Amino acid sequence: RYEITAREAAAEILPGVRTPIWGYEGIFPGPTIESRRGRPAIVRHRNDLPVPTVVHLHGGHTPPESDGYPTDLVLPTRGWSGGHHSMHDPAAAITEGTRDYTFPLDQRAALLWYHDHRMDFTGPAVYRGLAGLHIVRDDEEDALPLPRGEREIPLLITDRTFAADGSFDYPSLDPSLTRVPGVTDSYLAGVLGDVILVNGVPWPVHEVSATRHRLRLLNASNARRYELALDPPPPNGPAFVQIGSDGGLLESPREHGSITLASAERVDAIVDFGRYPVGTEVTLVNRLGAGSTAQVMRFRVARRERDDTAIPARLSEVEPLRREQAVVTRDFSFRSGRHGDRHGWLIGGRPFDTGYVAARPRLGDVEIWRFVTDLHHPIHLHLVNFQVLSRGGRAPGPLDGGWKDTVDLGPGEAVEVIARFDGYRGRYVFHCHNAEHEDMGMMATFETV
Ligand code: C2O
Ligand code: CU
Ligand code: CU
């Protein structure tokens, strides 16, 4: 059982500067929750903010009533007289002040995260700070000789712009304006910041021993993509050994020179600082950035230490879903376009509409979903983990392995994913995880029946 209150607070993020935030428990990121597989977590969320909220556990295998459907509002404790879309959604479950979210967590060990998911306002709410980590652990993972304790480091990476008064500079400060044409146009592609924050700290410096470390990377940025690399690269051996993905451990480790992460994607990677001489400063750089956004953080290799860890050649079992198992194939396009008099981001030519169900998978069925895009869109499905079957008509990419819940589509690229829709009946969403695209309509409902 946990109780988390979302409230306004001030944080010192830039030295000597006071930044107003919206934070779970008044902090950014929110408190990290650690759970064990199969042991349900009940989280009572209380909303002391001036606006409604909705909480979603990203990556959670969660019954629909606790999944944070975008109109399942938790109204502010101080009352709310503003309008909301839930009024037009007869199925919306609205609570006043608090809501108990039940997460069965009957799922593999993985790095999940929780964040706001209110219809049309996810971008500004998350930007103001409404995001936190939820780590699920299990016996299988605990039995592996991986780095742990202070050598296991979750890195929640975001970008923010600060206004002159120290506040987060979201292009539309009045969230009620985010639907006005012309205002949305100024950040149609998504909101980018010029300060990189890791766990809420700008470009931190972290001391490490010359041993293997487990970096649990999450791109929690609204819209920015990163290609993470080490500078200098280790003198011998790969920069990163990936051991896990969105949905937990891979079957076997994979080596990468760099790791590309779109919004909401996670990569669990081992970096061996033992390959560097003591005294080295290793910068985690972002090859897709320029100037201030080309650097993420630094590691200072401070001392030698004994290292008993290892990366087993076999990490876990990942049952491959086969094309022949699929009983349905569905196609969805993710493109920008006009809808009525507004420019928006559309799935299958439509903006998000709570009254429209885009897919009704039968519980237990395996389905193939084919996505095509115009530009970069990280596509996320609630409820299920999937496997990437193909990318651009070819084999999946180097970072597509294991169980995923978010897949990064490149411009003009087609991707096929395969999933088994099991667990719970009810309505869920899938959407682009560029938060501004999501707010501007690139989301749709699916219902497991
Ligand atoms: Cu991380 Cu539907 O969200
Ligand atoms: Cu999600
Ligand atoms: Cu998008």
From TrEMBL:
The reaction(s) this protein catalyses: 4 Cu(+) + O2 + 4 H(+) = 4 Cu(2+) + 2 H2O
InterPro entries listed in its UniProt record: Cu-oxidase-like_N, Cu-oxidase_C, Cu-oxidase_fam, Cu_oxidase_CS, Cu_oxidase_Cu_BS, Cupredoxin, TAT_signal
EC number: 1.16.3.4
Enzyme type, top EC level: oxidoreductase
Keyword tags: Capsid protein, Metal-binding, Oxidoreductase, Virion
Residues in Plastocyanin-like domain copies: 8-70, 96-140, 344-448
Gene3D superfamilies: Cupredoxins - blue copper proteins
UniProt entry tagged with the keyword Phosphoprotein: no
One Gene Ontology MF term: oxidoreductase activity
Family from the record: Belongs to the multicopper oxidase family.
Subunit and interaction comment: Monomer.
The protein's name in its UniProt record: Multicopper oxidase CueO
